[in-house]
Amino acid sequence: MKKRPDQAPSSVNDLSPAILKRMQHIERCLLWRGELQRADLINEFGINPIQASNDFRAYLSRFPDSMEYNGKLKRYVPLRTFTPKLITPTTLDEFVSMSSPSVPVAVWPLPNRNASPEVLQAMISAVRDRKKIEVLYQSMTGEQPNWRFLSPHAFASDNDRWHVRAYCHSRNEFRDFVLGRILVTRHIKPSDAVSTTDTDWHTMIEVLITPNPGLQPEQRRAIAAEYVLPPDSLELTMKIRKSMLFYLKAKFEPIQTDSPAAHQLFVGQVS
Questions:
Q1: Helix (H, G, I), strand (E, B), or coil: what is residue 177?
Q2: Distance CA 67, CA 60 (A)
Q3: What distance in Å separates the CA atoms of residue 189 and residue 4, rounded to the nearest whole number?
Q4: Which of 70, 213, 215, 232 has its CA 20 to 30 A from that of 97?
């Protein structure tokens, strides 16, 4: 049976690996940045404008309900029906190298916990569009997960797990929420939360990292070598967001004990 011109192919098996890779990048841009231009493909893959236009047409022919051209913005934007077909996003790690002024991300040195693709897409959209979203969250303080509205404005990772920084409308304060503990999302509404008032997120502080002074000198040097600390001072000063100091300290101060061997690093705020 001859296929109608407006009938999208159900498979991408006919695509070369190179074209498939570029189409996957199209979906990453739509999901993460919420917009797409030919330059996104040209700059990422070093192709010419004609090839980029061909890739756009090929993608739209297969997935016509994914994006549309916005003449005012002069770029493609995702449709409300957009759902990634070629990528399965479960962690933010695949997006952090893609700059997006509307989705702030902070990464600093500190096992990755995955969110479902549906949750991840919903939270990214809420951050980008400055909306509040109702989530079913499993906290560590309650026996049962509970529904709450969050106004998320940024993501952050300590290389251990991903958090979303959001205003909690139940507690009326900005808090951190582990993405992997958001079980499902539902209602999305306009938000009146102002992310610039999240003082702990916007305040940068300096912290001092050094082996526990209670250890023997040779033990301190071994720890310094393990964490690549300067061999002369055995100290490293780094800047992080104030809101994440808790997680940095929890990483290196998880056990309250008088034994120096169980407390290998000391983390103290400098300013």
A1: strand
A2: 7
A3: 39
A4: 70
Confidence of residue 92 (pLDDT cuts 50, 70, 90): confident
* Alpha-carbon span 132 to 192, nearest angstrom: 8
Q: How many helices (H) and strands (E) does the chain have?
A: 7, 11
CA 154 → CA 145, 210, 218, distances in Å? Answer: 23, 29, 41
Asked whether 164 and 132 are in contact (CB, 8 A), the reply is: no
- Asked if 44 contacts 25 with a C-beta cutoff of 8 angstroms, the reply is yes
Residues counted in the chain: 271
Q: What is the pLDDT of residues 254-265, one digit of tens each?
A: 556 566 655 556
Reported for 36-43, long-range contacts at CB under 8 A and 24+ positions apart, including other chains, are 36/67, 36/75, 36/76, 36/77, 37/74, 37/75, 37/76
d(CA 9, CA 39): 26
